[in-house]
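User: Please fill in residues for this 213-position structure.
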């Protein structure tokens, strides 16, 4: 069947739902939802899958490698990561195998449970956050982690990873538990960005006021 819709010139094409997900507004510091612990994901349905897809789209558009549900205004235990474009060396094992990144990314993690083996070495790296535009700072975190999570269909998985992959997941799980990266910085690093953080908070407050008036 060869169906086509001919539209008169000058008339917009109808908006078809679910062709391409809408990108979501990214919440900036210090909107209260960033301080709200994510609720456990219980229902794995089409709405959840759609939210995850929209989060992935939003993360890609913003050029990020990870995004937590709080950052799109939804306090849930849900985050997405995609490190296919990341310029970094890291290793991973998912469900006991080491598939190419393309086979499992973008990765949706619901209800992630992080564990760090005792004695794991730590490393420092500069991090950014889509909720803190242009603000960056060095953070020390464990170099390797393992995490149990469910995918968007509720299927349980076990992931072990290191390097930037491990760092990214730790950053996102922090969001789910309303820990922001500025709280992980050493005192001196935090002091260096303090002005920028305060300015951002003021801008966010002003934007919210403009919207409500
Ligand atoms: Zn972040």
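Assistant: Residues filled in for all 213 positions:
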């Amino acid at each position: 069947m060869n169906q086509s819709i001919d539209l008169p010139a000058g008339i917009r094409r109808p908006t078809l739902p679910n062709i391409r997900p809408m990108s979501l507004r990214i919440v900036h510091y210090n909107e209260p939802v960033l301080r709200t612990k994510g609720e456990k994901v219980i229902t794995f349905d089409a709405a959840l899958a759609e939210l995850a897809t929209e989060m992935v789209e939003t993360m890609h558009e913003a050029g990020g490698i990870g995004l937590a549900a709080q950052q799109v205004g939804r306090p849930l235990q849900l985050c997405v990561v995609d490190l296919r474009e990341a310029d970094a060396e890291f290793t991973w094992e998912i469900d006991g195998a080491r598939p190419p990144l393309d086979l499992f990314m973008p990765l949706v993690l619901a209800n992630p449970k992080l564990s760090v083996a005792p004695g794991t070495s730590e490393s420092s790296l500069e991090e950014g956050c889509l909720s803190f535009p242009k603000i960056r700072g060095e953070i020390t975190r464990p170099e390797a982690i393992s995490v149990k999570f469910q995918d968007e269909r509720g299927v349980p998985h076990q992931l072990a990873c290191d390097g930037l992959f491990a760092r990214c997941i730790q950053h996102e799980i922090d969001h789910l538990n309303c820990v922001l990266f500025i709280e992980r910085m050493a005192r001196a690093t935090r002091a260096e960005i303090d002005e920028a953080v305060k300015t951002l908070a003021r801008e966010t407050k002003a934007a919210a006021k403009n919207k409500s008036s």
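For context: The chain has one domain: 32-212.
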